[in-house]
């Protein structure tokens, strides 16, 4: 600002600062001091003024003016002027233009629009909108006059009056932005204001006619033929399209920035694109499509571009004058954050969901389908009703409401490979539409979409060669088996299995046909049994054999009937954990084609970007989530801008995101509706008690199955009960100890702790006759053997260090030795050893001896939390780091800690206290380390290269298949532990 003032006073120019109150109050106060110096010198008649610590020649013809919109009243990011600044300027208020002098009937009409039509953020009935209509009237009059049709049409036609021209212009420039409800009110107002006879044309016909006229004129303006298959290249003009998502990047990357020290200007993507467009020859048409959320911070930087002068002034001093061959197109789903200053400068076309019919989407999708007759019949009978049920009665999994087009797309994905039967179509409906619903609502929807079993079977049986044998076996056994599973079976997942799903699970095993009763029995057990729990599956298999004959059991091996899941090794997976983009060079290779550089997976056919907890990324003050905007850009345009502002394409890349939410939280989550519409959604519920029992029983059966063959010397049956009894006692003791550490230590209230103890005692007494186990554990500790001489170097096995049982006396002596060792190497602790401190050290050590173990210690000051950590670090021979305060020093200490753990292989404990995380940025760093093992942007590219060179030999020795950065993160997570201390 000072440099601009120097230029004004030297050359005697008038400077007008538009949108002045968008500056911060501190900046405005500083600017007022400079303006006051200039005005004082002008009043006193001085020939110079002191600016920028030097005397500047003063030309008395200079002047300073400011213009601004009022703070509030829909204008975002505006502030009140400080009092010292108000005194420096003479105010001139423009409250409202005199529309009566501009237009007569149009003025009345616009006044009625503002009162009668609904209040929408994108409606503008001000002077700029009025000016646009009047310009349209003038252009239409010139066109009509040129064609000789203004006063009279040849061969006795009707007279085309100026009122009709004005009405057509109003429709052309207004109807496109109205909501469907306001279209009817709009036509009524038009007929009331203009005294033109009613032509009895339906509103829909008027809307279609006006829309067709808009499309025709748009096509004519760029030379396109009115054919939906024509592209921009078919216009006969050289058209270049530049697409930018303004919210998928920081503001400085979009608009550029000035280095505060060197004053060097660095272009942003928008300013660089503007320069490229400006350099194009006049015969090249350029479209700048800014596809993303709109807020005043970035779009009002283009106010002068959207005005009649079409001028963009860069901070570097370069002024770019756009010609008529440059068009700006803004695409967004919401204008609630746009101010009237923006709305009045742009034309608006509202594409309402009510304007998009489901049949139009389906007809477009059906054009290239081979079995379109069957599909069309099923779609007409079921799809539209199912979509209507989901939209009106279904409870969506995320957000408040699902969009019709998004619902249709979720079904069409499952119909891409075609359907051969009504059953397949029903399954596609349940999977496609049901994935958008909550678990409870999905079950209700599945009941609505369920079909009779015989209808499914008859449709499937049409093209089967051995239909006689199949029909006989199906009639005798299949329906009976499905009924048994539905009524008596215990399903593995969910509460109840649907008929269609059960039948499909059997028909898959019957596709290749059956030649015998035994094959059909195997298909029944494998197909229907896959839906059941382990215990219920065995009962079902026995029931099938009972139905089909005892002799069948000799030809079927029930022990070999199992289900296996296979990992697809052809796909690489990156766990991103709430970060934005990672270094694509690690997992992708760059190739060049006619569109520029494109990244493709290096060592896999496809690449999956996995984003964990995407809803936790904080939105900015305008409600936009930058990560979501970045993902929208990847999905819609398959690429991104790198640090050099170059567009990088992505090929063979898929995106998966997760959110851990309760049903109530899922309804309140505010993610972009455009993002939710562009992805497929699937909601999963928590596992219930029955499912957990099945999972744990299966897991424990594998563990016990590995133990039993190892006891080869236990041949006598009398020894086995003794072994089992001893194992049970030890196992229960360890189980209760771990349960107390995992669950009881999280309880705050003594009342809750007492309830937990009573539950443990009741279970131990009822099932195992061991009610005194908690009393026994009060004097027992499970700890490691310690390693004070480790010198910060110690390898941890993947499952952590083994824990040994010590009684209170032995553990107390070990703690005292650790205190003496710490005081010898560091400072004196001056501790009074109390039982709570001894217990805390044991529990801290239990966490720290697992790789990447992190701990949150909450308690009052003086309880001994910090001392317990110091004692545990001394016992384990680990390096304890207490970071400095201040974000910059905290970042430096965190970086050092990560390098010690990841490069040097030292066991590092990082002690983070509540005063460290008062800055949310520091807390975000800690959370990123805990969840992902890294902090994006913490290390510079040079530091990352240095880390990679240090670890290259180690990774080669271990035959590590991943990147060096992945090796560093793995090593860091193995040796890095984090503490968070909180006060109550």
Structure commentary:
The chain is α/β, with parallel strands linked by helices. It has seven domains: 2-86, P-loop containing nucleotide triphosphate hydrolases (Rossmann fold, 3-Layer(aba) Sandwich); 99-200, Dynein motor, AAA1 domain, small subdomain (Helicase, Ruva Protein, domain 3), CATH 1.10.8.710; 237-350, Rossmann fold, CATH 3.40.50; 464-564, no CATH class; 571-671, P-loop containing nucleotide triphosphate hydrolases (Rossmann fold), CATH 3.40.50.300; 711-777, no CATH class; 793-983, Rossmann fold, CATH 3.40.50.300. The protein has 37 helices and 24 strands. It has a four-stranded mixed beta sheet. A hairpin with a 6-residue loop joins strand 6 and strand 7 (265-266). Residues 150-159, 198-203, 223-230 and 550-582 have low confidence and may be disordered.
- Uncertain segments are 150-159, 198-203, 223-230, 550-582
Beta percentage is 5-15%
N- to C-terminal separation? 49 Å
Roughly how much helix do the residues carry, as a percent range? Answer: 40-55%
The CATH homologous superfamily of the largest domain is called P-loop containing nucleotide triphosphate hydrolases
Give me the side-by-side strand order of the main sheet.
13-14-17-16
CATH architecture of the largest domain: 3-Layer(aba) Sandwich
Structural category: alpha/beta
Whole-number count of domains: 7
Rg calculated over all Cα atoms: 37 Å
Put simply, the count of helices is 37
Mean pLDDT: 76
Q: Tell me, briefly, the overall form.
A: globular
- The CATH class designation of the largest domain is Alpha Beta
Profile the largest sheet.
4 strands, mixed
State the CATH topology of the largest domain. Rossmann fold
How many strand units?
24
């Amino acid at each position: 600002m000072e440099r601009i003032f120097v230029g004004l006073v030297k050359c005697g120019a008038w400077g007008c600062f538009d949108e002045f109150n968008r500056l911060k109050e501190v900046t405005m106060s500083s600017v007022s001091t400079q303006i006051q110096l200039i005005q004082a010198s002008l009043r006193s008649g001085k020939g110079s003024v002191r600016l920028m610590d030097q005397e500047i020649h003063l030309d008395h013809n200079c002047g300073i003016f400011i213009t601004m919109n009022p703070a509030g009243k829909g204008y975002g990011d505006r502030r009140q002027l400080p009092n010292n600044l108000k005194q420096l300027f003479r105010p001139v208020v423009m409250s409202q233009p005199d529309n009566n002098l501009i237009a007569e009937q149009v003025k009345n009409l616009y006044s009625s629009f503002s009162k009668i039509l609904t209040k929408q953020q994108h409606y503008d009935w001000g002077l700029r909108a009025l000016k646009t209509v009047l310009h349209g009237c003038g252009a239409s009059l010139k066109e009509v006059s040129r064609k000789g049709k203004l006063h009279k049409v040849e061969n006795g036609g009707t007279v085309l009056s100026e009122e009709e021209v004005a009405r057509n212009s109003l429709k052309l420039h207004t109807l496109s932005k109205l909501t469907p409800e306001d279209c009817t009110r709009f036509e009524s107002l038009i007929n009331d204001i203009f005294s033109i006879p009613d032509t009895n044309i339906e509103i829909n016909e008027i809307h279609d006619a006006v829309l067709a006229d808009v499309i025709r004129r748009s096509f004519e303006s760029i030379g396109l033929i009115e054919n939906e298959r024509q592209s921009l290249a078919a216009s006969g003009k050289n058209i270049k399209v530049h697409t930018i998502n303004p919210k998928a990047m920081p503001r400085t990357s979009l608009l550029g920035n000035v280095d505060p020290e060197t004053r060097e200007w660095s272009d942003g993507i928008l300013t660089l694109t503007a320069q490229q467009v400006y350099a194009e020859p006049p015969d090249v048409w350029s479209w700048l499509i800014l596809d993303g959320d709109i807020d005043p911070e970035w779009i009002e930087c283009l106010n002068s571009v959207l005005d009649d002068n079409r001028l963009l002034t860069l901070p570097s001093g370069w002024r770019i004058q756009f010609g008529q061959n440059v068009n700006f197109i803004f695409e967004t789903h919401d204008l609630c954050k746009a101010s009237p200053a923006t709305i009045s400068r742009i034309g608006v076309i509202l594409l309402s969901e009510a304007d998009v019919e489901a049949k139009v989407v389906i007809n477009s999708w059906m054009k290239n389908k081979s079995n379109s007759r069957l599909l069309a019949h099923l779609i007409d009978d079921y799809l539209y009703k199912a979509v209507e049920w989901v939209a009106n009665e279904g409870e969506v999994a995320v957000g408040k409401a699902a969009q019709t087009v998004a619902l249709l797309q979720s079904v069409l994905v499952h119909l891409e490979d075609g359907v051969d039967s009504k059953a397949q179509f029903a399954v596609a409906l349940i999977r496609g539409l049901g994935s958008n619903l909550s678990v409870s609502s999905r079950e209700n929807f599945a009941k609505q979409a369920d079909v009779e079993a015989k209808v499914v079977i008859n449709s499937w049986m049409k093209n089967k060669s051995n239909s006689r044998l199949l029909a006989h076996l199906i009639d005798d056994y299949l329906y009976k088996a499905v009924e048994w599973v539905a009524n008596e079976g215990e399903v593995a997942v969910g509460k109840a299995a649907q008929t269609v799903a059960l039948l499909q699970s059997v028909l898959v095993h019957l596709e290749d046909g059956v030649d015998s009763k035994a094959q059909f029995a195997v298909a029944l057990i494998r197909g229907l049994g896959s839906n059941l729990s382990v215990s219920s599956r065995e009962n079902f298999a026995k029931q099938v054999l009972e139905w089909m004959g005892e002799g069948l059991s000799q030809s079927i091996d029930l022990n070999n009937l199992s289900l296996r899941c296979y990992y697809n090794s052809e796909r690489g997976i990156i766990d991103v954990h709430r970060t934005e983009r990672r270094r694509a060079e690690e997992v992708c290779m760059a190739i060049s084609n006619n569109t520029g550089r494109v990244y493709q997976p290096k060592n896999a056919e496809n690449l999956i970007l996995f984003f964990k907890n995407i809803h936790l990324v904080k939105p900015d003050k305008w409600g936009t989530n930058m990560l979501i905007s970045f993902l929208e850009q990847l999905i819609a345009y398959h690429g991104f801008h790198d640090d050099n502002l170059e567009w990088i394409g992505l090929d063979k890349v898929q995106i998966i995101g997760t959110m851990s939410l309760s049903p109530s939280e899922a309804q309140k989550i505010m993610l972009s509706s455009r993002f939710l519409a562009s992805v497929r959604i699937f909601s999963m519920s928590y596992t219930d008690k029955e499912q957990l029992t099945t999972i744990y029983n299966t897991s424990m059966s594998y563990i016990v199955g590995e133990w039993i063959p190892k006891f080869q010397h236990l041949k006598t049956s009398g020894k086995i009960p003794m072994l089992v009894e001893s194992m049970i006692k030890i196992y229960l003791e360890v189980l209760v100890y771990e349960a107390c550490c995992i669950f009881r230590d999280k309880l705050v209230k003594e009342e809750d702790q007492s309830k937990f103890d009573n539950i443990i005692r009741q279970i131990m007494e009822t099932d195992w006759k061991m009610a005194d186990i908690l009393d026994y554990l009060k004097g027992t500790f499970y700890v490691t053997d310690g390693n004070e001489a480790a010198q910060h170097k110690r390898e941890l096995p993947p499952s952590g260090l083994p824990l040994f049982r010590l009684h209170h006396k032995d553990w107390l002596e070990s703690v005292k030795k650790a205190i003496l060792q710490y005081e010898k190497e560091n400072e004196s602790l001056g501790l009074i050893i109390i039982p709570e401190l001894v217990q805390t050290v044991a529990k801290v050590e239990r966490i720290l001896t697992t790789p990447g173990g992190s701990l949150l210690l909450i308690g009052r000051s003086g309880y001994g939390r910090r001392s317990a950590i110091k004692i545990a670090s001394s016992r384990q021979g680990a390096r304890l780091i207490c970071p400095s305060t201040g974000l910059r020093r905290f970042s430096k200490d965190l970086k050092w800690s990560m390098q010690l753990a990841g490069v040097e292989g030292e066991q590092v404990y990082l002690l983070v206290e509540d005063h460290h995380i008062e800055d949310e940025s520091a807390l975000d760093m800690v959370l990123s380390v805990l969840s992902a093992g890294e902090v994006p942007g913490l290390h510079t590219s040079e530091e990352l290269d240095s880390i990679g060179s240090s670890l290259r030999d180690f990774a080669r020795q271990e035959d590590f298949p991943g990147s060096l950065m992945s090796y560093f993160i793995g090593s860091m997570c193995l040796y890095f532990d984090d503490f968070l201390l909180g006060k109550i």
